[in-house]
Amino acid sequence: MPTVITQGAASAKGYGFGARATAANYIEDVFSTYLYTGTGASQTITNGIDLAGKGGLVWIKGRSGTTDHALYDTANVTGGLAFGFASNTTEAATYRVGGLNAFLSSGFSIGNLARINTSAATYASWTFRKQPKFFDVVTYTGTGANRTIAHNLGSVPGCIMIKRADTTSAWAVYHRSLANTQYMVLNTTAAAATGATYWNSTTPTSSVFSLGTSTDVNASGGTYFAYIFAHNAGGFGATGTDNVISCGSFTSGGVNGVNVELGYEPQGVMLVNSEYGGNWIILDSMRGWTNGGTPDTSNDSLIFPNTTAAESVAVRGFPYATGFNAINLGTANYIYIAIRRGPMKTPTTGTSVFGLSARTGTGADATVTGGQTDDAVLIKNRGSNVASLFSSRLTGLGYLATSNTTAEGTASTTILQANPWDVMDGVKVGTTSTTTNASANTYINYLFRRAPGFFDVVCYTGTGANRTVSHNLGVVPELMIVRSRSSSNPWQVYSSALANTEYLVLNTTAAKATGANRWNSTTPTNSVFSLGATTEVNANTINYVAYLFATVAGVSKVGSYTGTGTTNQINCGFTGGARFVLIKRTDSTGDWYVWDSARGIVAGNDPYWLLNSIGAEVTGTDYVDTYSAGFEVSSTAPAALNANGGTYIFLAIA
């Protein structure tokens, strides 16, 4: 599969995430993809974006029905009434009763307008907050003469979408990857056209964009709104140098696909065939833009900005750590807008990135929640001899059992529902499977959010040769759990407490083993991890997934300890004790033990279960106790947990 360095190449909810003392900007503060279900009555969408104080744009589309798009921006308000556009029509700005009611400090509220809030219908919303080097909204009155318009983007625009508000008019689109004599039309399937009267054959600057005399952009007396998107302008992250939005182009490889390098993993992209025309396409990881491997076999959820069509599914590629793959698009030139995945802030509380719950199966479709937007789940049936399941947003419907070597499964409606991650909180489980949701069966669920320093998920395809794989953990991984997806192989585990020539196997009790071909005798860095040529981690054309963990002060601790045979307090730097504890002996055989506070980490007996076994949870033992700074291994614990002189690794989450 070819990799293309493109014209766009370079370099949700944010609750519980910290920031530096000086004002830093993060993608989760300025952009949100939020999914909701219509109620037919007024409702508030809380997505963490300050529209009341900062201004911006809300773009809404019905997923389950054929509805017009609805675009509302904070500049298009008259007498307290929000006027809206539809990206699929030429209609003027229109006020509709029951539309967007208010722009709020943490989202927006809507009324009962059918196109945005029909009862039981499903919707997607994309919110862009005004922010230099990301997005700006400009309104102006046309003159009918060549001129420039000032903007506050603070960088050279990568894309500009202009819509006339006072009468019907087509959407005119400028994109940096086209000539400054070309334009596209958002509400049609037309290819890029030539028209010097749109941008006056002049490229925008960091302070102004130019207009010609076309009535679509500059009729005398006309009222216009311009939505302006930045391109690789930096301005974000702790250092203020990270890019969060890219406007570029690529030539599609058709069914062979092409990798588009961005320098970051995107959470969403809008693209269109600029050479021959066709539907504009919106893809995002919240609705279902997943990594099915190479070649990609996973369906992606598509929304078309130029039509009323309901959401549809097709294979169109996937995001990866430094860009996205585009496939099945036909061989042609495409332009795109890509937005970086968040959060970018390092978490400060465990509850913002890790949720757990004990529940009883319903035997009907259900959603397992964790209290935050989640990216991975580990589910175990507590009372039955059934394998535990690990799945992630990036792998979509795919799931793996921690206790065996079986290739990834994709049984929809039973294990997981089709498109299981298209909810704001948690994951959707199926109907009758004993693994996840059998009626009256009891379960424990662990839900993880990807976040800098805490947890990351990486999908890659093996090459059969020594190599590195990029990740977005932002720090050096201390624990890596790797598994082949498209073939049967044992789970491989890297631990920073071991040598980089050593590894563990998650689905067995085996002690540490030596194998330089696992990690290529190379310690991971804050941007890549290394692989040898062994089948378990890097066979040619085989697809893999890697789960990466690290220590975040007060949130998580990846560490090791030496057994004492007596009460052993493990200080993780927490203040309220651990809610999740995973322990494995490394110098000798021993199971992979799991405890959690939902089932009970108390001074008395605590139930545990084993990642490497299908067995039900074990009760009536007192091996792990509470300890405010972390957890305590009791003197009654077996050698697999606390032998005098034994060595152990652990993962604890506050």
Keywords:
disordered N terminus; six-stranded antiparallel beta sheet; 5% helix; mainly beta; 654 residues; 8 helices
Protein model, in words:
- The chain has 654 residues and is mostly beta strands.
- Among the domains are: 3-13 and 240-340, no CATH class; 350-448, no CATH class; 455-549, no CATH class; 556-653, no CATH class.
- The protein has eight helices and 49 strands.
- It has a six-stranded antiparallel β-sheet with strand order 10-17-12-13-14-15. It has a six-stranded antiparallel β-sheet with strand order 34-41-36-37-38-39.
- A hairpin with a 7-residue loop joins strand 4 and strand 5.
- The longest helix has 4 residues, at 27-30.
- It starts with a strand and ends with a strand.
- The relative contact order is 0.10.
- Residues 1-21 have low confidence and may be disordered.
Distance between the termini: 42 Å
Q: How many individual helices? A: 8
Q: Could you tell me the number of beta strands?
A: 49
- How many strands, what sense, and barrel or not for the largest sheet? 6 strands, antiparallel
What's this entry about, in short?
This protein is mainly β and 654 residues long. 5% of the residues lie in helices and 37% in strands.
SSE diagram, text form:
Layout lengths: L2 E2 L22 H4 E7 L5 E4 L4 H4 L1 E7 L7 E9 L2 E5 L14 E5 L2 E4 L3 H4 L4 E8 L5 E7 L5 E4 L8 E6 L7 E4 L6 E4 L7 E2 L1 H4 L8 E4 L3 H4 L4 E7 L15 E7 L6 E4 L4 E8 L7 E4 L15 E3 L9 E3 L2 E4 L2 E4 L6 E8 L13 E7 L5 E3 L7 E6 L7 E4 L6 E3 L25 E3 L12 E7 L6 E7 L5 E4 L8 E6 L7 E4 L6 E4 L7 E2 L1 H4 L8 E4 L3 H4 L4 E7 L6 E7 L5 E4 L8 E6 L6 E5 L12 E2 L13 E4 L2 E4 L5 H4 L4 E7 L1
Parallel strand pairs: 1-19
Antiparallel strand pairs: 2-9, 3-8, 4-5, 4-9, 5-6, 7-8, 10-17, 11-16, 12-13, 12-17, 13-14, 14-15, 18-26, 19-25, 20-21, 20-26, 22-23, 24-25, 27-33, 28-32, 29-30, 29-33, 30-31, 34-41, 35-40, 36-37, 36-41, 37-38, 38-39, 42-49, 43-48, 44-45, 44-49, 45-46, 47-48
